[in-house]
Amino acid sequence: MLSYFVNYGVNLHITDGSSKTWRIPFALQMLPGVILGTGLLFQKESPRWLVEKGRVEEARHVLARVRARPIDDERITLELDEIIQDFHGKERLTFFQQGQAVFASKQILYPVSMALALQFFQQWSGTNSINYYSPQIFKSIGLSSTSAGLFATGIYGVVKTVMTGLSLALAIEQVGRKWCLIIGGLGQAFGMLYIGAHSAVHPTVQGAPLDGGSTFAIVCIYLYVAFYSLAWGHIPYILSSECSPNHVRSLVMAAALMLQWLCNFAIAKLTPIMLANITWGTFLVFGMSCILMATFAAIFVPETKNVPLETVHLLFEGSISTIVRNAFKDIRPKHQRAKELRERHLVSHAVEDRASSGDDEDLEKSRGRRQVEEL
Fold first, then answer.
1. Are residues 155 and 170 in the same domain?
2. How many domains does the chain have?
3. Considering the chain, what is the average pLDDT of its residues?
4. Residues 152 and 183 both lie in one domain
């Protein structure tokens, strides 16, 4: 958001054509990097990474700090035991061993493929075509002034930042990942398809004043980024990490992000060529891609809202057809398995608590309730 307004300010106040027009933005973007790099010096490693490396006591301290509980708290011990059990026999796997583990089981290969597909669709929704070439895109739909295009791009950044914050606070855990992806994808498709259709029917005449259709096309760019920020801007990263088994998560995330940046590179190279050669068809291509990714989310992506990380693998049990069928059922809230897995996890913890306290009568009742939940 700040970078867009830096570009606008530089274009507005530096008119002599000197190298300051690019040196100042490059220098300013180093400041957040310095702040981030300094903050990383105080960042703790994740408990799961520490357990994977055999540093269990460090993992206990970090987990207690994250949960804001005493280090000897029983809930910390139970959660740590779950993490250790999940890693049992899979600690310190090499890169090639992780690769073998990915292809050894359908239950692992499915979430890995899903993570790659999510990152692919995120880029081919056209988000970085707007991020990189927004002044040219605004110009193609009627904003001929460079300053006006840069200012409109700044507003684009504001909408993106605000909507991302609102989504993280109010939507991702309340609405769920799956429905956010579906709604976000369809909203992005509407924005792109309208811009493409309007540009095809009413080609922009340079220098002509904006009419109602062109104004709404500009609004559609903001609608596009609002729906992108609702889901596809951040949920692919969340699902890619939480659906990947602990012992191969680093390999899966590396592969998913590598694919994302390769697609990012392709988008950066292809967008100006597409705008020059197929013009309004560029927006139709991205709009159809958005429809495809919303369909993919509806059919193939399970709902993981409130599911503990050590229980997520249960969403991928059975054959591929079973996994897909169950993922599609998650589209209806009353059929979502996330709630069932969460309740099973809580009952399991209740059993462990009573077992440690030695209350046999309560333990039998808890076991009975657990059997009912599993049935």
1. yes
2. 2
3. 86
4. yes
Residues whose CB falls within 8 Å of the CB of residue 248, separated by 6 or more in sequence, listed in order: 93, 98, 101, 102, 108, 112
Distance of alpha carbon 226 from alpha carbon 229, whole angstroms:
5
Q: Which two structure tokens, joined as six digits, stand for 36?
A: 């981030």
Which residue has better confidence, 351 or 52? 52
Token output for 27 = 């220098």
Regarding whether 266 and 118 lie in a shared domain, the answer is yes
Tokens of 245: 């088994």
Residue 199's pLDDT is 92
Residue 108 contacts residue 245 (beta carbons within 8 Å): yes
Of 91, 84, 61, the closest CA to residue 73 belongs to 61
Buried b (16+ CB within 10 A) or exposed e, 70-82: eeeeeebbebbeb
Q: Output the six-digit token pair for 162.
A: 């605000």
Confidence of residue 366 (pLDDT cuts 50, 70, 90): very low
Cβ neighbours, 10 Å, residue 109 = 15
